[in-house]
Specification:
The protein contains 16 helices and 15 strands. The chain has 445 residues and is of the alpha/beta class.
Amino acid sequence: MNEITAAIPRPNNLDAFWMPFSDNRYFKAHPRLLARAEGMSYYTPDGREILDGTAGLWCCNAGHGRREITEAIQRQAAVMDFAPTFQLGHPVAFEAAARVAEITPPGLDRVFFTNSGSESADTALKIALAYHKARGEGSRVRLIGRERGYHGVGFGGMSVGGIGPNRKQFGALLPYVDHLPHTHLPQRNAFSRGQPEHGAELADALEALVALHGAETIAAVMVEPVAGSTGVLVPPRGYLERLRAICDRHGILLIFDEVITGFGRLGANFGAERLGVTPDILTMAKGLTNAAVPMGAVAVKGAIYDAVVNGAPGGIELFHGYTYSGHPLAAAAAIATLELHRREDLPGRARAMEPYWQEAVHSLKGLPNVVDIRDFGLIGGIELAPRPGRPGARATEVFRRCFDAGVLVRVTGDIVALSPPLIVERHQVDRIVGTLGEAIRAEAA
């Protein structure tokens, strides 16, 4: 029998954690750590405030440390920490699904819970394939994404996504995948405010893919209403409407990835609502729980659910799911978060702040190396000219300067992406944009 002895404390060093999407070597030589968060700000271990210009990773829409969410998680943990949802259930998951269905676009009232945006993307693709097979159209196996699209890091979402660095390390991906062109037209749309005027015709590339592959082989098209991780690409006016019409014409499901655009980011509950286009399937995560507990979800039209469930011969209808689907703590966090959104009208606050936000981010036009600015809702993208032979280096230095000056921004390539919590005030917008402007000037060379 082993003797129980007093535990020897281990040093709290940086070695063990292999950080995601990070320059591990640089970080561990020059760490930037966050120790706590409250309201609009993070705080470093030595107590320095870092104003959050990114809502964490596009996810803390209600700000940080919201007492209502914390207490809901604590109450649920004290009652029941975990319950399986395979052939069993618990009331909180059903309530959370009903709350989500109250705010999704009309008709998308069946909700499948996941744990992340990546899992939501793969779940949506599998549901699309299962739907067509249930209807006797098993030949529809092809999935269409878009260049520069981001749908997480599962093999399904990565295959349909179109960001090269996310794909090139991993060899062959899913078969039967094709891509639409992206919608970024800087020669025609540079410094657009809101939706660009030019580019709706890019949706017609789907007709070309139908002609190439045959409509009877295409299951679904997945796009982000506003592409975020690739650098804030806002859809041209009429583009999504055109895509919707082509999908309808050929019996193709349209999937919106709203992991970033959901829960008020565009001044509405979902981007589909703001943009006036309803998909067949909608993915979400991030803002669903204000990031307090990992959770994602997929909302589908009732007809899709009915085809899969009622079309099955008996027993399990969809052989898919996760151990933590509808986890009690996540479900409790989701309910509390959605109540916060309703009570404080966070989408309305975002819509009211949007004009001021737009003026602020576009005030950076004319600064050294700023080649484009894009915005929609409470999202901003400031594109910088890359340094010769060193793509991404300029924006990375801007990020570091902003952090050291007390403001958190996000960079992707040479694009600075902004997405503050929806509780942001005007003086905080001024500080975010002012600090960013100073950093851009400092990296002019």
